[in-house]
Structures are given as structure tokens and as C-alpha cells.
Design brief:
Oligomer: heterotetramer
Helix content of chain B: over 70%
Largest interface: B-C, 45 and 45 residues
Number of strands of chain A: 12
Number of helices of chain B: 3
Bound molecules: beta-D-xylopyranose
Strand content of chain B: under 5%
Largest sheet of chain A: 6 strands, parallel
Structural class of chain A: alpha/beta
Distance between the termini of chain A: 43 Å
Strand content of chain A: 15-25%
Largest sheet of chain B: none
Radius of gyration of chain B: 25 Å
Structural class of chain B: mainly alpha
Shape of chain A: elongated
Order of helices and strands of chain B: HHH
């Protein structure tokens, strides 16, 4: 009935961003006769993530698509999987030094860099910035923070006051934002580097009625983020293309299995989106 | 998972009872409200029916994975023996670790079937 | 039936544990009796694996039947309504009897799934 | 995966004779891509039999193969099934007046007739006969008894002392045989008209050490029957071809579904088997 059996393993299953990646992957799967499993941790947990990849490999699936979350753990893991004859494509987050066949996703350093340049422009070069990132260990989060830091480092009026991690959790993102608001009253701007961070930052900033005093730039274009942009609480967000990542990962995997040449690094589009860009 | 399947089957079972009652009520009383109820519940039963395949076909891929895992388990067992008999201690130790790991996956997978 | 599946899965689970033990015993003691036991159990696990598909595919046809029964149930429900609205009392009574009968089949089939 | 989905409904599932019919049906099913269900009463029960056919029809299977056990119940049942668009082929037992598309099985009247002629020859025309039949209502049993009666009716030395039914049950067959031995000491011959009757008659006759005084002719060639023939307890049996019935029913059903012309009545071979016919 199906020609291929692929598995996509995100860091968190029921994450609205990853549901978009899944949606793109399913569209390609349905079109090309791929039995697609979408499995992973219900809540971000690297041990469960690693185990899911290992179970998939033991199940002898035809291809595995996953994030290359960290070099330390994922590079040897990916290498072992590829050694068993199962091709791996990284999605969203690359482990560039592993034996993964290809990567499709945002150029994360560049995306962080765009965010930094946008903040400079929007704050006229004067801001005390708190960053809430997904996890400290994840490659893409590190790259986004690095790109941002590199963009703002020459700006004398921009100070990065704090960098906290949300652990890809709404609750934790809200908690960290609240903590920063209390501990660092001097903060005038937030940068959230994963899809949920900006949303929870905005919610807390509204809760304490500081939306007119605090600048927020987020990531991704989930409906809640768009809503906050319409309201003005979030001023800008970094666009990614999760649907295309999912769709492209599946088609690339099919090509790999059929022995076709595949571009090793495919960067999906990333840019800044503001209120004026909305219909 | 098994619980989702149980719930779906339970829903279908109850819904077909309810449809039967509504239909009976309609032919006894000739009340349109019964017919409306019948038609509303009918749509729900059709949705449940459609979900049957989704819920049950999850079951089929889980079975394929399980069967392939048994193959992987046995492959690693054979590799353990082969390496052991060649006195390749690092090799057979690694393969045996895989045996342990996949055995735990098999134990766990039973719950999904 | 569900109980046969449960037993088979249970057998596989226990047998993979036993194989792991035998393998471990072999690489610890290097005793051929462990290797013989391992190989004997391995054959049994392969047989169980082969039975997986038979036992599980009974499940698939049961599902197809169940899904088609829901169609038949709804067909007879619609036929009941149609005949009722045409005042064809014998017809709708017959169709409603079919509704009752198939509803009871659905109740019963849930047990097989 | 399968092209067709057929159901075979015997009167009793775990009956050794019907397992042979199933075996033939499965051979054809495997060869021609038929998903074959073999379902029915665990023990002969006409209500369960009827219900199984009705459930199969409600399940919209592609074809149903079953016995046409009785005109009273099965003819309208078969007609209803055919009216729903599901072809029916009768196997082993015909309901010739129903809308079944075809019948494959023994010519049961003729088989009973052969048994009667054999008894006459073996008993030199002098015997008090007890008949144990499967059920009184089943068409094929009636025909076998009728055929037998017609074969012996002109023989003045042949008297039919009793006719009892075993309900397709070993236990009941043994019970009836024992009862007849007690109630009718004048009986010198038994005719068992279903596969299990002759076996249980032989067992009881041996139990009461009357195998040298009582002539037995049975039905079918189950291993136990063959064993009793070797021992001499059963003198002859009527041969049927259950495997061919099963195989032929499936191939005929495939032809029906593909719009091919099908012979409406196919009689499988029937003949008498004696010790001298055994290897
Ligand atoms: O990796 C994902 C990231 O790309 C997105 O921005 O936020 C959610 C994460 O899981
Ligand atoms: O119908 C079957 C008959 O043909 C056989 O002789 O005995 C067993 C019966 O079930």
C-alpha cells in the first residue's frame, strides 16, 4: 500500500510549530505514498528524543527525519543510525558534522542576526535586552542567540542583560519572563528565540501592563504571535517556513532512497515580519 | 493506543444505540425533532467510522515496527555470538548492549499493541 | 480474538527476555549449553513472529466487517425513514427490524475488536 | 492486498469434515488472492448459523458459501442475501429452490442410494437396520435417508427399525447408538449418515462387543472411519470430496464475481469404499 516508511522525530510532539512541520510532511507523504509516522517526546526531553530515534532505527524504517539537536549526543546517534543503513535528514536544526545526508531548515545564525538588526532599528540603538531561548544545548538556539549577539555587539546602546531558557515550555517561558521583569526592571526589550517564547513574553508583559514600555521581537508566525503583532505587543517576528521544511524533508528523503542526488543544505526562507507586512 | 481504540469503539456502540432509539421514536411519534436528532447523530457516527481506520491503522504500523524490532533483536543476538566466538570483546559487548536495549524496546512496545 | 493476541504478545515478550538471559549466560560462561538454549528459543521466537501477522490480520478483517456493518446500519436507517415518509408501513417496519438486528450485531462485534 | 473477501459458513466450525472443506477453500483462497473467513457455530445450531450468515451480509462481504440446510429457513435467508447483491453458493447441502447461484457437493440422494445397495449386498438382503442421521431438518440428511430407503424398500428381508438424529454431535451419536442397542436387540445393521455418526456407532458397538454381529456402513473417510474399516468394525463407507467442495466453491465464486458463467449444480464424486479398496 505504501512505498516508503519514514519517521519524523521532533523535539516536542504537540508543539504548534512542529504540527506545521508535520502538516507539510503529511502533505508530501500522502502525495508520494509514504507511510509517515510522527513520533517523539510529548514534552521536550532529550532522552526520550534519542530513544525514539533508536526505536525507529531498530524498527528498520526506511528513513528518519529529525532535528540535529546537539553535537554531543546527536552526532554519534545519527552516525550509528546511518551506519545501520537508514538515511537521516535533519530538519529545523542541523548537526552539520554528523553523517546526516541533508539538512532542510532556516539558516539559524542568519535568522538571529536579522532579529538583532531589527531590534537595533526599532529601538534606535538603545535597549536593555533579555533573551529567552528554547534550550541552551540546542544547536539552532545557540546559533540564533549568537547571530543576534553578533548583530548587536557593536551597538553601544544595546545591552544584553539576561539570557534564560524556556525548555520549549509555555509555562517555563512565562515564568522566566516574569522573573526577568521582577529581577531586571531596567529591561526594555525581549527577544524570544523559539516559537512559544515570544508569545509567553507578550502575555506576561501585558499582564504587568508594560506593553508600551517593552519592545518584543519573537520567532515564527503562529496565530498567537500574529495576534500579538496586530495588537502591537510584539513589534516584529522572525519568519520561518515549517510547512516547507516538512514537505521538503519528505521529498528529499524519497530522492535519497531512489539514489538521486540531493542538495546537502537547503535553507528555507527567513525574514522579518512586522505589522505593516500583515494584510 | 489501545485506550483510544477502546473509547472509539465505545462511542460507536453507544451512538448506534442512540440512533436506533431516535429512529424508533420517529416512526412511533412521527416527530420531526426525532428525525433531526437522528440525522445529527448519523453524522457523528460517520465521523467515528472514519476515525476507525486512522486509529486502527496506527495499529498496523505499530505491528510492522514490532515485527522488525524482533528481527533487529535477533540480528544483534547473532552478531553478539559471532563477535564473541571471534574473541572480539569490544564488539560483542557493544552488540550485547544493543540486545539489552532492543529487548527493552520490545517489552515497551507490547503496551502499544 | 483479543485474548489470542494478548497471549502471543505475552509469549514474545517473555521469550525475548529469555533469549537475552541465555545470551548473557553464554557470553559470561562460554558454555555451549547456553548457546544451544539460545538457538532453540530463537526458533520459537521466529515462529511467534510469523504468527503475529496471522493473529493480527484477523483483526483487520474484523475491522473491515465492522466498518461495513456501520454502513449497512445507516443504509437500513435511511431506508426506514424513506419508507416511513412514503407511508409504506410494511417496508419501514421491515427496514426498522433490520436496524434493530444490525444494531445488535454492532454491539456484539465490539467484543471482537 | 486481497482481491475478494468471501465467507464460508458451515454448520459446525470445528468439525473434522468441515475442516477439510475449509482446507480446500483456503488452498483456492491463497492461490487466487481471496481473503477467506471461515465462521459459524462452534457447535451445530441453526439459529447461530442463520445469524452468522446475516452478519456476513451486513458486513458486505463479496460472496457467501454455506450449506442450504433447510428449505424453510435457508431459502428465504439466501434469497434476502442475494437480494442485497451478495452471491451465495451452497456447499455440501443444497437449497435448490433458493436463489443461490450454484451448488457444489455430493448428490446426496444418490449417495444414500449407494449405501442402501451396498447394505443389501453385504447383508445378503437380510438386516434389521437402525439409521442415525445428523439432523432431521437438514436437506442432505433427508436425501441420504430417502435414497437409502428407496434402495432397500423392495427388499423384503431389510427392515428399518429406527431412525434417530445425532444433532452433528459425537456425544449424541454415541448416546443414540447405545439406546438403539438396548431398545432394539433385533438390530443387525447400522447406517450412519453424517461423518461422525458411523464413528460413534462403531465405538459403541465395540464397547458392547457386538462388532461381529452388527454390520455398520458409515459416511465419509475421516481417519477414524478408515481405522474402523481396517479393523472390520465398519464394513463400508460412502466417500465424499470435502476438500474439492471447498476448493471448487471458492473458484466458482470468483468466476461468478467476474461475470463468468458457472455450472449451477456440480456434483463431486461419491462412491462406496471398503476394506479391499484401502492400500
Ligand atoms: O525547533 C523549533 C524552532 O525552530 C521554533 O522556532 O520553535 C520551536 C522549536 O521547537
Ligand atoms: O454436512 C456434513 C456432511 O456432509 C457430512 O457427511 O457429515 C458432517 C456434516 O456436517
Amino acid at each position: 500500500k505504501y512505498q516508503y516508511h519514514f519517521v519524523m522525530v521532533p523535539e516536542e510532539l504537540d508543539n504548534d510549530y512542529w504540527r506545521l512541520v508535520e502538516k507539510g510532511a503529511r502533505a508530501a507523504a500522502d502525495k508520494y505514498g509514504v507511510q509517515l509516522e510522527y513520533v517523539g517526546p510529548k514534552q521536550a526531553n532529550i532522552e526520550d528524543h534519542v530513544k525514539t530515534i533508536e526505536m525507529s532505527a531498530a524498527s528498520k524504517v526506511d528513513g528518519i527525519m529529525t532535528q540535529g539537536l546537539s553535537d554531543e549526543q546527536f552526532t554519534p546517534l545519527i552516525n550509528r543510525v546511518v551506519e545501520k543503513g537508514i538515511p537521516v535528514i535533519t530538519v529545523d536544526t542541523d548537526a552539520a558534522n554528523s553523517r546526516r545526508e541533508a539538512y532542510i531548515g532556516t539558516d539559524n545564525y542568519y535568522a538571529g542576526y536579522l532579529a538583532g538588526k531589527e531590534l537595533i532599528a526599532d529601538t534606535k540603538g538603545k535597549a536593555n535586552v533579555a533573551i529567552i531561548t528554547g534550550t541552551f544545548y540546542a544547536n539552532h538556539m545557540q546559533q540564533r542567540v549568537k547571530g543576534f549577539q553578533d548583530a548587536v555587539k557593536e551597538e553601544k546602546g544595546i545591552h544584553i542583560i539576561a539570557v534564560e531558557e524556556s525548555e520549549i515550555s509555555r509555562v517555563k517561558a512565562a515564568e522566566k519572563a516574569t522573573q526577568i521583569l521582577k529581577d531586571h526592571p531596567e529591561v526594555t526589550a525581549f527577544f524570544g528565540t523559539s516559537a512559544l517564547d515570544g508569545i509567553e513574553i507578550a502575555q506576561m508583559v501585558e499582564k504587568y501592563q508594560k506593553q508600551n514600555q517593552i519592545y518584543i521581537i519573537g520567532f515564527d508566525t503562529l496565530p498567537e504571535t500574529i495576534e500579538y503583532i496586530r495588537k502591537g505587543t510584539i513589534k516584529a517576528t522572525v519568519v520561518q517556513e515549517p510547512y516547507q521544511m516538512g514537505y521538503g524533508a519528505v521529498t528529499m528523503m524519497i530522492d535519497l532512497i531512489n539514489g538521486k542526488k540531493v542538495t546537502p543544505v537547503v535553507h528555507t526562507e527567513t525574514r522579518i515580519l512586522r505589522l505593516k507586512d500583515l494584510p | 493506543e489501545s485506550f483510544e481504540r477502546f473509547l472509539l469503539l465505545n462511542d460507536i456502540s453507544q451512538r448506534s444505540n442512540l440512533l436506533t432509539e431516535k429512529l424508533h421514536g420517529y416512526i412511533l411519534d412521527k416527530e420531526n425533532s426525532h428525525l433531526k436528532d437522528y440525522r445529527r447523530e448519523k453524522l457523528k457516527l460517520i465521523k467515528d467510522q472514519n476515525r476507525l481506520y486512522k486509529v486502527m491503522s496506527t495499529q498496523e504500523v505499530t505491528l510492522t515496527n514490532y515485527k522488525n524490532m524482533i528481527d533487529s533483536f535477533l540480528d544483534e543476538g547473532d552478531a553478539t555470538i559471532g563477535a564473541f566466538q571471534q574473541d572480539e570483546i569490544n564488539q560483542y559487548s557493544n552488540h550485547f548492549n544493543e540486545v539489552l536495549k532492543i529487548n527493552s524496546f520490545l517489552q515497551e512496545s507490547t503496551l502499544d499493541l
